[in-house]
Design brief:
single chain; alpha/beta; Rossmann fold; eight-stranded mixed beta sheet; 8 helices; 8 strands; 15% strand
């Protein structure tokens, strides 16, 4: 389906499962389309009695794109987008699952719109309200190579596979599985250069001014112990900042949507918090 949160914007979304079941909204990280939430992962949650919703952020996949270097939206708009997709798919309060930037979106929604949130799962994320110093990214990811030609299928897919390995942790990469996802990303994307440029330029003319203590929904923090972008103390700080949050370490995982090695553990946790 296509959802229009505002005039001139179209977001591509898909659902897996029975519309009458509790809804789980999967929110991708910066530059990432919905494809990193693989259909098999979604179908396993759906088979257990959940309505799983995944969608493309602006500038990713089949959603509205803007010229590379000139995003026509702010960070708050991505929160509005997520709420619009959830409302279009189910009238029930939604179980939010956000990875990285998606976790930041989920934090803000849960704090500002508590009536629309049933639970929150934050993966590879960091507090949107800082209360102290946290460790910086691993030096290996602070100087990325020049961008590829994002219109060249081979170059773009190779770069996506390389980036997934760069941000991965201590678990060996399933290169064939990652390449299959990366190929799907290329084939579905209207403008890869836009997503890989504009999300990194976003600012917010309506910044979040609240506190994470405003979050009243149950919160689960899943964090890789080998995350090179947000080292594990970010997950610890996030869990400490939200009353009642539960932290579960994912041993050896990096900064990524949980790969297949972690599916059993992650799916069990998501079913528990959304029950």
């Amino acid at each position: 389906m296509h959802v229009s949160p505002t005039t001139g914007v179209s977001l591509y979304a898909e659902t897996h499962g029975d519309p009458s079941m509790p809804p789980i909204l999967l929110i991708s990280g910066a530059t990432a389309s919905m494809d990193w939430w693989e259909p098999e992962f979604c179908d396993r949650l759906a088979a257990a009695g959940r309505l799983v919703i995944r969608y493309d952020h602006r500038d990713t996949g089949e959603s509205t794109t803007y010229p590379a270097g000139a995003p026509g939206y702010q960070g708050l708009d991505l929160c509005t987008d997520a709420l619009a997709v959830a409302a279009a798919c189910s009238p029930s309060p939604v179980h939010l699952v956000g990875v990285s930037m998606g976790g930041g979106i989920a934090q803000r929604i849960a704090a500002e719109h508590p009536a629309r949130v049933a639970s929150v799962t934050l993966i590879a994320s960091s507090p949107i309200v800082r209360t102290g110093e946290l460790p910086p990214p691993d030096p290996r990811i602070t100087a990325p190579p020049p961008p590829p030609d994002w219109t060249n299928r081979d170059e773009a897919v190779d770069r996506l596979v390389t980036d997934e390995a760069l941000y991965g942790g201590d678990i060996p990469q399933d290169t064939a599985a990652v390449r299959a996802v990366a190929t799907r990303v290329f084939d579905r994307s209207r403008d890869l250069a836009a997503g890989h440029t504009n999300h990194l330029l976003l600012s917010d003319d309506t910044p979040f001014t609240g506190e994470l203590t405003q979050i009243t929904a149950p919160v689960l923090v899943l964090h890789g112990t080998a995350d090179p972008l947000f080292p594990y103390p970010h997950g610890e700080a996030l869990a400490a900042a939200i009353p009642g949050a539960r932290l579960v370490p994912l041993q050896g995982m990096g900064h990524q949507v949980p790969p297949r090695t972690f599916w059993n553990q992650v799916i069990e946790e998501l079913l528990t918090i959304s029950s």
